[in-house]
Amino acid sequence: MPRFHFDVHENGQFFRDEDGQDFVNVDVARKEAVLTGTSIARDAFVAGSADHVVVDVRKDEHAPCLKVSITLDVEEQADGYVAKAE
Amino acid sequence: MPSDAIRAALVRRLRISSAITDEDIAEIEALPISVRQFPAETAVVRDGERATDCCLIADGFCARSKTIASGKRQILSLHIPGEIPDLMSLFLHMMDHDLSTLTPATLGFISHETLQKLHRRRPFVAELFWRDTLIDSAMFREWIVNVGQRPAPARLAHVMIELRERLRIIGQLEGSSFEMPLTQEQVGEALGITSVHANRVIKQLREEGIVELHRGRVTVLDERKFLELADFDGRYLHQSPTL
């Protein structure tokens, strides 16, 4: 089974995955990367510590074969109604 | 391991958490137990199997878990010496989850028949074991709240503090560090996140100077921040007869 590494970029910060994990193919590795990215993004977006999370998937020491990119985009709408706090 | 040592953690725990009498302790100490050694990461009893005895952990760590169709595993609880993690198998005949070792473990098996006889002879012991399984379900409730509601760093801190409080009761807490023999992957399975996310959380807690998990040992770096992050209230462990 090929070994995949999942390097994470959170805004400017970079976390290199030294250990890696075995997956039967790149499809299964893609699912793992999406799970990892969305779960890191969920915490980071809510905490406000990042608004962009990228997971680079690479086989061994090769260049990344997949890039999973997740961006938070919240827009305030000028004409929207927000009840004033009492 | 001498037979007293097999039951030592259980007896210690019962003495602290319940108003057990010396007579009942003597009954528990006289229970016939067959002792077996298990290697790390080995199934003790599997989902779907019929158990004929209950397993008392004398030494080592175990976990209960459930694996779904996709192969993903959720760790449901961690278990330490003095606990009987499959006590419910006395009444629920077919296992609905897995019990396996995390580390090499010494396990004592007590037959269902022996336990049933003891319960009929000593109703107070039956009540104690009933209470034990109720505390077990209180811990599961807390586990659900933890995994369902807290962000991952707080989830990890909460699991760590719960384990520390339970190790304290059986006298296995020395100094400022304690054993939590989980791999990065197993931390992920306990918290409901991927192994890579678990690694990220472990690194983050170390970099923020809160707590370090290294080679299966937890070292608290800042007790105040650790408690604050975990949002831990130990009432659900009911570690005294009045709680």
Please explain how this structure is put together.
Chain A has one domain (3-71). Chain A is 26% helix and 31% strand. Chain A has 1 helix and 5 strands. Chain A has one helix spanning 26-47, and strands at residues 3-10, 13-15, 21-22, 52-59, 66-71. In chain A, a hairpin with a 2-residue loop joins strand 1 (3-10) and strand 2. The radius of gyration of chain A is 17 Å and the shape is elongated. Chain B folds into 2 domains: 3-143, Jelly Rolls; 151-237, Sandwich (Jelly Rolls), CATH 2.60.120. Chain B is 44% helix and 21% strand. Chain B contains 8 helices and 10 strands.
Compact summary:
Helices cover 26% and strands 31% of the residues of chain A. Chain A is α+β, with helices and mostly antiparallel strands and 86 residues long. In chain A, a hairpin with a 2-residue loop joins strand 1 and strand 2.
In helices, the fraction of residues of chain B equals: 40-55%
The first-level CATH class name of the largest domain in chain B: Mainly Beta
Largest sheet of chain A: 5 strands, antiparallel
- Tell me the distance between the termini of chain B: 33 Å
Radius of gyration of chain A, in angstroms, nearest whole number: 17 Å
Total number of helices of chain A = 1
Helix share bin of chain A: 25-40%
How much is the radius of gyration of chain B in Å?
A: 18 Å
Detail the topology: elements first, then pairings.
The complex is a heterodimer of chains A (86) and B (243).
Chain A: E1 3-10, E2 13-15, E3 21-22, H1 26-47, E4 52-59, E5 66-71
Antiparallel strand pairs in A: 1-2, 1-3, 1-4, 4-5
Chain B: H1 3-17, H2 22-29, E1 34-38, E2 43-45, E3 53-59, E4 62-67, E5 73-79, E6 98-101, E7 105-111, H3 112-121, H4 123-149, H5 152-169, E8 177-179, H6 184-191, H7 195-207, E9 211-214, E10 217-220, H8 223-230
Antiparallel strand pairs in B: 1-7, 2-6, 3-7, 4-5, 4-6, 8-10, 9-10
